[in-house]
Amino acid sequence: MADGTGARNETIVPVILSGGTGTRLWPVSRKAYPKQFWPLISGRTMLQETAARAAGNGFAPPIVVANEEHRFIVAEQLREADAEGARIMLEPEGRNSAPAITAAALLIAETDPDAVLWIMAADASIADTAALLSALGIAVRAAREGFIVTFGMRPTAAETGYGYIERGPALDGHDGAFRIARFIEKPEAATATALIADGRHFWNSGMFVATARTLLAEMERLAPDVARASRVAFDARQLDLDFIRLGAEGFRSSPDISIDYAIAERTDRAAVVPAAIGWSDVGSWSAIWEVAAKDASGNAAMGEALIEDSARCYVRSEGAVTAVLGLEDVVVITTPDAVLVTHRDKTQNVKSVVDRLKRDKRPEAEAHNRVYRPWGFYESLIQGDRFQVKRIVVMPGAKLSLQKHFHRAEHWVVVAGSALVTRDAETHLVRENESLYLPLGCVHRLDNPGRIPLTLIEVQSGAYLGEDDIVRYEDTYGRS
User: In the listed set 308, 336, 363, which residue is the last one of a domain according to the structure?
Assistant: First the structure.
């Protein structure tokens, strides 16, 4: 990046892709709150782990490309991680990685087309950060000379869930970097065994390092439809609070294609840096078991989990005590509304369970009982015939939309904090242990004017209690 003197700034711009849904990690990861927002391997979420890896000296604030529906979750998690200056770019819908990366490159190219971008998914695990940064240094030097560089992970097993890269000849002048001979799709087990035997094949990490100029030039040359659509979407962008909202019509016209298929597998500028960094895409529960801390019997547990007389199990609970006794090689995942029990060898097939739930139109396929909103979250406690009880938590300074319902009345009981409630033409300050009734059809709003989270119990009653029974008149967060 150029500074005021015309000298080149050597900082690297992290580009974090946060659009995945992590279906194979159901029931924890779901479309409404996917795996990158969960603490799966440490006390920090996967997004926070990724941002922390690319922070400090030598790094610019990150650009995070995220699904529009997740914008406030991303913003809050970056704030908690002290990722100052982060920019969040919103996709109108998922169109795979190529258009997302192109839009990020366009943003950087506005100020410095020769800036180096480090592109990575928000949901990978890396155990050896020092080795990663060493490999990154090699990749950056090659990228500055016009190469598109990826990292080849040295395989530790004949993994069939990853794509592979075959190493070509050494890259002149860049010790540790090689040209790419070919990319290989996820192989069968026998093929994978053969690939890792010769030492020339590596797992494809999905991380890329290149300048904005190189990425855009190769996209124009090899995937002009992606380049064109991304340019239209970028030129139509709008600032929405702290977000960069890409133009919907242009972005949706882009082919749905990955950066691998769009340019990486077709360009003559592709290079690979082999590395042993303890990488995993943590794309299944067995993969999480692999990287988790284990006891002497090979068991790993998280949350309210008890394991007795068992071996090589992974047990995780998001609430209820979950006990496993006398089992081997199983995965047990407990959430408030769903339980998964599977053999560790079958965890790659969890998506088939999700697909069946979708066919049956079960809400558990895509959303949790706890639903996050820009202002906080709500969760259903009890649901019966013509009534429902919810817990609602509103963050300090946040407010719900000004709204009304056609089919339900609501009774709000404040249990912590204070609520400023608009009810038609009236305004009420409702304190702890006080309540307010909202009759059917009244126009109302809930506001937390205090400095602590507002918690209230909502009792709904009526003929229809669906979330789509809402008319918004005014909304701080731009929802319709």
Answer: 363
Q: Which residues pair with 13 in a beta bridge?
A: 117
**Least confident span in 12-16, 450-454, 476-480:** 476-480
Q: Are 156 and 184 in a shared domain?
A: yes
The answer on 116 and 157 residing in a single domain is yes
How far apart CA 123 and CA 90 sit, in angstroms, is 18
Q: What is the DSSP letter of 83?
A: -
Domain assignment of residue 389, given as a range: 370-474
Which parts of 34-128 fold into alpha helices (H)?
A: 46-53, 71-80, 97-109
Helix (H) / strand (E) element for 310: namely none
Please tell me whether residues 427 and 448 are part of one structural domain: yes
Residue 7's pLDDT band (boundaries 50, 70, 90)?
very low
Tally of structural domains, the chain:
3
Band (20; pLDDT cuts 50, 70, 90): confident
Same domain, residue pair 341 and 251: no
Greatest Cα pair distance in the chain: 76
Question: Residue 345, SS3?
Answer: helix
Listed residues 363, 383, 412: the one ending a domain: 363
Structure-block tokens of residue 13: 């711009």
Q: Cite the beta strand spans of 336-453 per DSSP E.
A: 338-343, 370-373, 376-384, 387-394, 402-404, 408-416, 419-423, 426-430, 435-438, 444-447
The burial class, CB within 10 Å (0-12 / 13-18 / 19+), for 325 is: exposed
Which residue type does 7 have? A
Residue 56 maps to a domain: yes
User: For strand 87-91 and strand 63-67, is the pairing parallel, antiparallel, or unpaired?
Assistant: parallel
Asked if residue 224 belongs to a domain, the reply is yes
pLDDT of residue 22: 82
For 140-171, b where at least 16 C-beta lie within 10 A, e where not — what string?
Answer: bbbbbeebbbbbbbebeebbeebbbbbbeeeb
User: Would you say residue 288 lies in a domain?
Assistant: no
State how far the Cα of 72 lies from the Cα of 153, in Å rounded to an integer: 33
Average predicted confidence (pLDDT) for the chain: 94
Q: What is the 3-state secondary structure (H, E, C) of 190-253?
A: HHHHHHHHCCCEEEEEEEEEEEHHHHHHHHHHHCHHHHHHHHHHHHCCEEECCEEECCHHHHHC
Q: Nearest-CA neighbor of 106 among 28, 9, 220?
A: 220
**DSSP 8-state class, residue 2:** B
pLDDT tens, position by position, 370-394: 988 889 999 999 999 999 999 999 9
pLDDT single digits (tens) 48-81? 999 999 999 999 999 999 998 899 999 999 999 9
Say if residue 141 is in the same domain as residue 78.
Answer: yes
